[in-house]
Amino acid sequence: MVPKRPLLCERLGFLYCPPWRVQGSSVAGEGTVVQVPELNVVFDLGWCPRMALSSPLVAISHGHMDHVGGLPYWFSQRVFQKMGVGRCVCPARLERPLMDMMAAWVPIENQETPYQIHGMEHLEEVQLKPNVRLRAIEMHHGTASLGYAAIEYRSKLKPELAGRSQREIREIRDRGETVTYTLEIPLLAYTGDTQRCAHLLRPEFCDAKVVLAECTFFNPEHRDRARIGRHLHVEDLPELMEAWKADTVVLLHASRRSSLEQARQRIDEVLSEDDARRVHMLMDHRRNRARYDAQLEESGQSEVKVVDGSVVEP
Ligand SMILES: [Zn+2]
Ligand SMILES: [Zn+2]
């Protein structure tokens, strides 16, 4: 008998949440890597699919192997592909152990891979784009763990100056007075692995336009597993969805203990119809494909198909 071929390509999950793409792969215990190319960041690197290389920054949520296993390879490939030295932010406690891990690779490979690793404290920020910063938010997962939020900083005219002419405003500024204030706009937030905790109700999560949230367990009998592993359970979602204003909540890190169909059914059971409509699962390829097709149709665009490097007319 001729044996079965292996799966020739591991499919990545993809959701277009305008103006951002959310793409990657996430299965509890096996691997999580979620890239948002437009924000120059990839969250976690349980393994390293090729597309993750294009982000110059990786934000590691915690040290479990399914979130960090691809990190040394990512550093190495970025340099090999001449994409520049990769930069990694992580919980402060992991800075030293991750640097030790990179040092351990030197005698194995007999060469040194350049890298940057920076440990972050709760509420510390790093720059993602000229006016967008990534803020670390402490989470609860039984080990040092961080969630992250991309926040846009917008300079706004002070309300009391509204209606004044350009010349008047310039005169006030020339006198040395400030005429603007800075508005923080949470764009996208990532929970990493965590149990239900107060920080999930912070404004960075409540006001983000897109939330990428772990939700590991769906079966009612798996509440204990969620508690012990410090993960979210689908029954935690109603409270979170009430607090989160996001148009799109992308669920990650589902355990293989429930099928996608069972998981979707439970989401629809525990949430109101409106809230359930806002929730998507990164790895639900079939529904995400239909959603993308509808987005294409709505835009009047057709998908560009590329076969063997050439564009094929649809
Ligand atoms: Zn995990
Ligand atoms: Zn974990």
Describe the structure.
The chain is an alpha/beta fold and 314 residues long. It has a single domain, classed as Ribonuclease Z/Hydroxyacylglutathione hydrolase-like (Metallo-beta-lactamase, Chain A), CATH 3.60.15. The protein has helices at 65-68, 71-80, 95-109, 166-174, 203-206, 223-229, 237-243, 260-270, 273-278, 285-299, and strands at 13-17, 20-27, 31-36, 41-43, 57-59, 87-91, 116-120, 125-129, 132-138, 146-157, 180-190, 210-214, 248-252, 279-281, 305-307, 310-312. The strands form three sheets. The chain has a seven-stranded mixed β-sheet. The chain has a seven-stranded mixed β-sheet with strand order 8-9-10-11-12-13-14. A two-stranded antiparallel sheet has the order 15-16. The mean pLDDT is 94. It binds zinc ion (ZN) (2 copies).
A few lines on this structure:
By secondary structure, this protein is α/β, with parallel strands linked by helices. The chain has helices spanning 65-68, 71-80, 95-109, 166-174, 203-206, 223-229, 237-243, 260-270, 273-278, 285-299; strands at residues 13-17, 20-27, 31-36, 41-43, 57-59, 87-91, 116-120, 125-129, 132-138, 146-157, 180-190, 210-214, 248-252, 279-281, 305-307, 310-312. A hairpin with a 2-residue loop joins strand 8 and strand 9 (132-138).
Question: How would the global form be characterised?
Answer: globular
What is the level-2 CATH architecture name? 4-Layer Sandwich
Helical region count? 10
Counting DSSP E segments of at least 2 residues, the number of strands comes to 16
Major sheet characteristics? 7 strands, mixed
CATH-defined superfamily: Ribonuclease Z/Hydroxyacylglutathione hydrolase-like
- What CATH calls the topology is Metallo-beta-lactamase, Chain A
